[in-house]
């Protein structure tokens, strides 16, 4: 159903702190023109934690509207209370999205059985496909391959975004899950390697500012053109790493502003703008990437 180069889209704000829908439309057009295969709207990179429920739903709706059927939109969801995650699905079910990307509960550190029951409840509340999202560095909980395998048996749980950077898991997931279960890397620095090991693509932060290169690289890798993919990845590697010099999406929003993709790089507290100390790292990465 999905594969390739998928952007974990940033959410642009005005200088007054409101969602900037004009810039959002501009970003959607940029990704369509650049060959991006799908958009994740209001995932964690989209600052879902600081948007109100009403804003969250509206941003997804507007992203679907702006895409006008030209690119699939995946809605980011997730909560540390299962009933809230189920409610998000209810609110977003009729927006025209193609799938959900549902991050693991954060802070309360559920057991593996708790994770299974959490996602089972979400899946029972919707017919829309669900992609699991494991990012223990941000949530404090790690969904083990055995739990992913159990969840993969649920009909509308179709894939996993794994942001552990642990390449050994690609083979484990591929071995333990059905052959049609989709495996996406959520770690740009190891994304190409994960495809070579059997992954289906990358849900990417780098894609926000290097969309055409990411699409070309991922498509080359999926087609077995590793020489071309390796060359692009090597050029982008400083960017893959530099965009995490401070908490994401701080660096990528600063970079997107510098490249003219959004009107400003504003974030909502408790996130703050990229520090003066970190700016040369990101600027040098942009130069190295030749974007």
Automatic annotation (TrEMBL):
**Where does the record place the catalytic residues?**
133 (proton donor/acceptor), 161 (schiff-base intermediate with substrate)
Q: Which domain of life does this protein belong to?
A: Bacteria
Keyword Transcription in annotation: no
Functional pathway: Amino-acid biosynthesis; L-lysine biosynthesis via DAP pathway; (S)-tetrahydrodipicolinate from L-aspartate: step 3/4
Q: Does the keyword Lyase apply?
A: yes
Compartments in which it is found: Cytoplasm
Q: Which Pfam families match?
A: DHDPS
Keywords of this entry: Amino-acid biosynthesis, Cytoplasm, Diaminopimelate biosynthesis, Lyase, Lysine biosynthesis, Schiff base
Q: List the SMART domains.
A: DHDPS
Entry's EC annotation:
4.3.3.7
Q: Which InterPro entries match?
A: Aldolase_TIM, DapA, DapA-like, Schiff_base-form_aldolases_AS, Schiff_base-form_aldolases_CS
Task: Locate the site labelled L-lysine inhibitor binding.
Answer: 49, 80, 84, 106
Could you say which enzyme class this protein belongs to? lyase
In this chain, the site described as Part of a proton relay during catalysis is at: 44, 107
- Tell me a GO biological process for this protein: diaminopimelate biosynthetic process
Which catalytic reaction applies to this protein?
L-aspartate 4-semialdehyde + pyruvate = (2S,4S)-4-hydroxy-2,3,4,5-tetrahydrodipicolinate + H2O + H(+)
Q: Where does pyruvate bind?
A: 45, 203
GO MF annotations, alphabetized:
4-hydroxy-tetrahydrodipicolinate synthase activity
An example GO CC term for this entry is:
cytosol
Q: Where are the transmembrane segments?
A: none
Its primary localisation, in coarse terms, equals cytoplasm
Functionally, this protein is described as follows: Catalyzes the condensation of (S)-aspartate-beta-semialdehyde [(S)-ASA] and pyruvate to 4-hydroxy-tetrahydrodipicolinate (HTPA).
User: Which NCBIfam families does its entry note?
Assistant: dapA (TIGR00674)
| Family, per entry | Belongs to the DapA family.
Protein name (Swiss-Prot/TrEMBL): 4-hydroxy-tetrahydrodipicolinate synthase
Write down the species. Answer: Vibrio eleionomae
């Amino acid at each position: 159903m999905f594969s390739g180069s998928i952007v974990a889209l940033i959410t642009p704000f005005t200088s007054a702190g409101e969602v900037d829908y004009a810039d959002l439309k501009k970003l959607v057009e940029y990704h369509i023109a650049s060959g991006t295969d799908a958009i994740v709207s209001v995932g964690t990179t989209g600052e879902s934690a600081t948007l109100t429920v009403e804003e969250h739903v509206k941003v997804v709706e507007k992203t679907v509207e702006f895409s006008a059927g030209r690119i699939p939109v995946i809605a980011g969801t997730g909560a540390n209370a299962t009933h809230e995650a189920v409610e998000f699905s209810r609110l977003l079910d009729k927006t025209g999205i193609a799938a959900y990307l549902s991050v693991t509960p954060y802070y309360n550190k559920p057991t593996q059985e708790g994770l299974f029951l959490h996602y089972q409840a979400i899946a029972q509340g919707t017919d829309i496909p669900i992609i699991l999202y494991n990012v223990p560095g941000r949530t404090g909980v790690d969904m083990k391959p055995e739990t992913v395998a159990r969840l993969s048996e649920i009909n509308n749980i179709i894939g996993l975004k794994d942001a552990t950077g642990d390449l050994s898991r690609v083979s484990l997931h591929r071995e333990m899950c059905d052959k049609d279960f989709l495996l996406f890397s959520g770690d740009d620095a190891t994304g190409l390697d994960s495809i070579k090991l059997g992954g289906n693509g990358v849900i990417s932060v780098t894609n926000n500012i290097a969309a055409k290169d990411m699409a070309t690289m991922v498509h080359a890798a999926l087609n077995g053109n590793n020489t071309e993919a390796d060359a692009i990845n090597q050029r982008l590697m400083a960017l893959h790493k530099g965009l995490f010099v401070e908490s994401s999406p701080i660096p990528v929003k600063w970079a997107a502003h510098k490249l003219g993709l959004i009107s400003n790089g504003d974030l909502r507290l408790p996130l703050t703008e990229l520090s003066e100390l970190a700016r040369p790292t990101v600027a040098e990465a942009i130069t190295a990437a030749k974007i």
